[in-house]
Amino acid sequence: MSSFRRIAKHPTICLAESCINFRQIKQVQTQLLITGLLDDPRLHGQFVASIALKHPNLLDYSTQVLDQNTNATVFAFNSLIRAHSKCPNPKKSFQFYNKMLKSNNPYPDNYTFTFLVRTCAQLLDCGTSSAVHASVLKHGFETDPHVQSCLIYMYAELGLLNCARKVFDEIPQPDFVIMTAMVTACAKSSEVGFARLLFDSMPQKDPIAWNAMISGYAQCGQSREALNLFNLMQMERVKINQVSLVSVLSACSHLGALDQGRWVHAYIGRNNIAVTVSLGTALIDMYAKCGDMNKAMDIFWGMKEKNVYTWSSAMGGLAMNGFGRKCLELFALMKQGGVLPNEVTFVSILRGCSVAGLVEEGQMHFNSMREEFGLEPLFEHYGCMVDLYGRVGRLNEAWDFINQMPVKPHAGAWGALLNACKIHKNKELGELASRKLVELESKNHGAYVLLSNIYADSKNWDSVSNVRQTMKAKGVRKLPGCSVIEVNGEVHEFLVGDKSHPRYCEIEAKLDEISKRLKLSGYMANTSPVLFDIEEEEKEDALCQHSEKIAIAFGLICLKEGVPIRIVKNLRVCWDCHAATLIISEIYDTEIIVRDRNRFHHFKDGACSCNGYW
DNA sequence: AAGGTAGATC
Known about the structure:
Helix content: 55-70%
Oligomer: single chain
């Protein structure tokens, strides 16, 4: 006979788990009381656990039930600690722990500590966390692998990689779950290189370990590495699941790699992979960030279940692609559907108002954040409001808004004002904004570049070179412009003045041709974005070397007629490139879609979706 | 009767 025995759940407990409301639970409790079953500590524990874990809205009630048996088991206490560690007020977990300690009955066990550590990870309070870690040591559970991986997870959440590392280093033979926790911890703290070393040293890796490493790369912005590792995962024939694909799609979104993203979409269909809410959301985000908003919305409407992530992604995508009103329509539907917006949703809403120029509507939504939804506006929201006023030229209101903000204006707010000053050519306010911006972020190249653009607009070359000199003195460098274009699933990257591409001869000839055709159509180079005070002709030459122009030329060479040219740029599109691209889309009769640092530009028949404001 | 590691909106 085996000594293994499984404790079957009492039928009344099964009944308690299937209750759907408080009244039914009360009935079950009465039954347990009458039959005296609640006096049995084991059944009492099961009952407490079934309420606490299956009915999180009745947490307070399960606490009362705990007190109804003076011999409550550690299982009952642990269940309540565990249930509270997942709820909005995780601090309550400690009440039960303290109660156990005070009466010495029952004693906390290794389970107790895994739940307490999770509570700390939820609370994000360093003092509490180190106190709990001390208790783990005091009770001698530091060698329990479950407790160890929870501790590593907790320190990673707190951003204390050194502490996580210390726990890890003291484990003589970490198993692969602990290794995976450490890989995640490193990636979260941007130590993705070390994460990879650990990952490579693992003798065996399950899909979770692979997914942890891939998402680590994706979250650190190392999107190409994420894709490379995903390919390796396939070559090693590791089982791919939804989590793998969500991370890969996120990498595609960052890169703007539409072909790769489409491949993932096809893979899902080919392998009959169930589209979970997060996978669907990742697909929407990928198509939106690659500029194919129609496809993104097809998926959106096709999803049965949608949560706040799904709605926010779709709304953010619409705003980013210039469909401000559609974004607001979606918000109305979201509210009708009973999904509550969060802070991120409001960033999308305010951006939607901004691109559509709907100032009053934006004000209304901004106020509703606090009044209707109890959400405190964050820096981003204030920045969006400055942008909202500034974009339509209401610069004074933007200025007033900044000065009346209840929080200290951050770089984003001044940056939005500065951009508005550039659009509406307000030199005085622009100078002020850029001075503030530089005070906050003395290495912010964007501030200097925008300011020198403002000066260059009025051909004030002395001031332009002053700005240049300040940049040089402070060691501020302009981030080199870089444009990416995908051709046949292959990603081609071009930097400013980049001549390194193997087909540069063809590209140069194409650039020449474009330049001639532009001139024939009456286009005049707007040389103001060139920061140097050089001769006009040289400036024109320098402009032709902007990375997006090189990428467009390459696209015209390689892509079939009728296929839109899609480009992802790391900076904002410059004014000259914008003007030139408008005409190129007309004379070459091609659609050109450019994603810049902020938003999309869909160029077609000589017009752009941004209407000249970006 | 229970516990450890991976994923989406900024």
